[in-house]
């Protein structure tokens, strides 16, 4: 009589461990054409549960997807890879519920095409509870690889393993039956040319019309013909000269500057200016110090430099409501921000934002759950062009809403806004939650 309950407990324990192992097994076979990018793929999988579970190997279908943070990298860039097992084939075969946060996945992503090898990926110890007879949850693993070769690089799901921490520490390895699995994502890597190290300096920052300015430079291609030229804003003037780079890539020459609108001097290889093969502009001003002819009057007007400023169309945004128990995206639009850059110098600007946590009735929503999709427009006639920041998380670390680059002459008027989305957890207590988004213009 006394031994029967122990056997029963052992059978129940083994059944429970077996159910845990099944939570991470899958297999089967459906083909997807190679080369498909960012798609779910099905592939046959052979999984071996822990021996203590008393369950034979399982062959079935795994549905998975590979995504990357950058589908167009350059050689030398680091790409973050996410391997998601979307739909394991198995369901919980028992009536016993499995607790949350017992599964820690690891795996491999197979590289092919222009670059071969594998990427090690790992996921957090996190899963939703699985009810008896319930469907097993999906899980994701991430890792990185460095691009070493230009061209199309394919990514396919590889073998994975689930470590479970429930009663015992156990592993369930799952292998691709017919490797490689179908291609789920493709990145196209561009060659990364050497950094442009060309640089120039001037013997003086100003001079009279017709004065000669000494230009010296380094980092040019040895033996290359280098053009020295004046610039008026972003436009090249008629003042040019040519020099030849020596065996060390250094240049030295003189440029006669006549154009009164000159704002800088550049030097470049090739038939026209290129940021890849050029240096500068370095600031240079032509001083209009010529004497006034007899019987004439010299008229002078001054343009005063202004300031960099911003204004907002309002200081409050009401996001849409979400339902308790469902949660989801609370959305809205950032109040339009107008930036006026009337400084008239070479510096661009950057408008960034960061947000606090959202406080509510006895609870809070992490500020990291706020994301935005920025937009920016430039008023006609502005010297600079506004660039919207990348879509993504704002959070306490902050993100860029909009910016303009440095240039020979910058400035203008710009308007920027963003679509906002707060990811509200499903069972956040009912009530109003408020956070503060701070914008900083530099």
From TrEMBL:
Against Gene3D superfamilies, the record matches this protein to: Neocarzinostatin-like
Question: What InterPro entries has UniProt attached to this entry?
Answer: TAT_signal (IPR006311)
**Keywords for this protein:** Signal
Q: Does the keyword Signal apply?
A: yes
Task: Give the residue range of the signal peptide.
Answer: 1-31
User: What protein name does the entry list?
Assistant: Beta-xylosidase
This protein's source sits in the domain of life called Bacteria
PROSITE patterns on file: TAT
